[in-house]
């Protein structure tokens, strides 16, 4: 009986153990937190390895502001030197072309003078060139007069330029031009074989010029020996 009572007491009077209360969370929240931490760590590592490294390289290789200014000034100076050299070459080329034209014309002139078969004396305009001057409305002329034929008598006369255009009322007008350096509307001509003449003239302010006519009148003649029109360069 005692043994049976002891068993009953042991069965109904077990020693109590301490009980811990824990909060219950669903299992998928733990997995979401783990995945989020992994993504954040990956992004941080990527930024540090790629973005930070690239910025560091750019900052290290990027020139300073003073260096950029120095490079810009140097480039502008080189560009100015190149432009000046190109302008000089262009001017030299134009001068060489002008000299070549003069040489060709002089050669043709001397060849014509060597023609001993010509008997009749004649005055010829070998060269005529009109160019625009630096000042507005001003022009420069270059011409060569020559005498062909077996004659030792010098050629004398006068050279003149007449401008043709329209006045403010729209009427056609013809006016003689003042030639420089003669400071007259006529330039004296006196030569035996040939004469080179260089000068300038200015257009009147009250007309719109279209063309200029050159005339050479030999002393004692009633009609011009030479009359040639030339358009003014724009």
Strand percentage lies at 25-35%
Radius of gyration: 52 Å
Specify the CATH architecture of the largest domain.
Sandwich
**Structural class by helix and strand composition:** alpha+beta
Q: pLDDT average, as an integer?
A: 78
- Helix count, per DSSP? 3
Main beta sheet strand tally, sense and closure: 5 strands, antiparallel
Low-confidence stretches: none
- Rough outline: rod-shaped
Give the helices and strands as they follow along the chain. Answer: HHHEEEEEEEEE
Question: Briefly, what CATH class of the largest domain?
Answer: Mainly Beta
The helix content is: 40-55%
How far apart, in Å, are the first and last alpha carbons? 146 Å
The CATH topology of the largest domain: Immunoglobulin-like
Tell me the number of structural domains.
2
Total strands: the figure is 9
How would you describe this protein?
Keywords: Coiled coil, Membrane, Transmembrane, Transmembrane helix. InterPro entries: DUF6776 (IPR046703). With 234 residues, the protein is an alpha+beta fold. The chain folds into two domains: 63-114; 118-231, Sandwich (Immunoglobulin-like). The chain has three helices and nine strands, in the order H-H-H-E-E-E-E-E-E-E-E-E. It has helices spanning 2-12, 27-61, 65-113; strands spanning 122-132, 138-148, 155-167, 172-176, 179-180, 187-191, 194-202, 207-218, 226-231. The strands form two sheets. Strands 3, 4, 6, 8 and 9 form a five-stranded antiparallel beta sheet that branches. It has a four-stranded antiparallel beta sheet with strand order 1-2-7-5, with helices on one face. The N and C termini lie far apart (146 Å).
């Amino acid at each position: 009986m005692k043994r049976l009572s002891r068993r009953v007491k042991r069965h109904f009077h077990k020693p109590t153990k301490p009980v811990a209360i824990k909060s219950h969370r669903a299992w998928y929240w733990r997995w979401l937190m783990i995945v989020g931490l992994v993504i954040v760590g990956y992004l941080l590592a990527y930024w540090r390895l790629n973005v930070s490294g690239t910025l560091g390289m750019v900052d290290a290789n990027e020139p300073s502001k003073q260096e950029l200014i120095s490079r810009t000034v140097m480039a502008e100076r080189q560009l100015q030197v190149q432009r000046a050299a190109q302008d000089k070459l262009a001017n030299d080329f134009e001068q060489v072309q002008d000299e070549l034209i003069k040489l060709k014309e002089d050669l043709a002139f001397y060849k014509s003078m060597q023609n001993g078969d010509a008997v009749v004396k004649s005055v010829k305009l070998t060269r005529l060139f009109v160019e625009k001057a630096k000042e507005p409305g001003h022009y420069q002329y270059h011409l060569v007069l020559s005498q062909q034929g077996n004659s030792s008598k010098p050629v004398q006369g006068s050279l003149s330029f007449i401008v043709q255009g329209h006045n403010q009322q729209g009427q056609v007008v013809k006016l003689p031009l003042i030639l420089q350096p003669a400071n007259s509307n006529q330039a004296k001509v006196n030569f035996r074989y040939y004469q080179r003449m260089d000068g300038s003239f200015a257009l009147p302010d009250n007309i719109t010029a279209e063309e200029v006519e050159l005339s050479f009148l030999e002393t004692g003649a009633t009609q011009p020996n030479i009359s040639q029109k030339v358009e003014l360069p724009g």
